[in-house]
Design a protein that fits this description.
The protein is an all-alpha fold. The protein is built from five helices and no strands.
């Protein structure tokens, strides 16, 4: 059962954008572009966080607000574990290094963990959205 058709359409569009970013991140990782992979990985997760927050009619322009609201609504709310949020924060920090640090770089190991964890996060959010009736299976 779909909740609101327009909301479902938006969620599907946002989740597709996230999956596309994840695909690019995987390609960049395989090509040893770890800083760029970290950036795309973060945005893949960021899109899925924006999607799930829309189910609570929440939308933010600042990244910190998106992360904080997700933590409040879905981690402290008991939907996802604290470890889930810890992985999101690590991915965010790697994106900061990849995009803005000049004397640091994202390692192969960090990039691989980011991509793996991002896929798990996106899959979990997608399953939640399906289970709650926001996305069709």
């Amino acid at each position: 059962m779909r909740k609101d058709a327009e909301l479902s359409r938006k969620l599907k569009t946002i989740m597709t954008k996230g999956r596309d970013s994840l695909g690019v991140a995987k390609q960049l990782h395989k090509q040893n572009h770890f800083n760029d992979a970290a950036s795309r990985t973060y945005y893949a997760v960021f899109h899925s966080l924006q999607a799930i927050l829309l189910t609570k009619n929440l939308s933010f322009s600042k990244h910190s607000a998106v992360l904080s609201a997700f933590n409040k609504e879905f981690v402290h709310g008991g939907v996802f574990s604290n470890d889930f949020y810890t992985k999101i924060i690590r991915i965010f920090k790697d994106r900061q290094v990849g995009d803005y640090a000049y004397e640091m770089a994202v390692s192969r190991e960090s990039s691989e963990a980011d991509v793996t964890d991002a896929e798990m996060i996106i899959n979990a959010i997608e399953k939640y959205l399906q289970r709650e009736g926001y996305l069709s299976v």
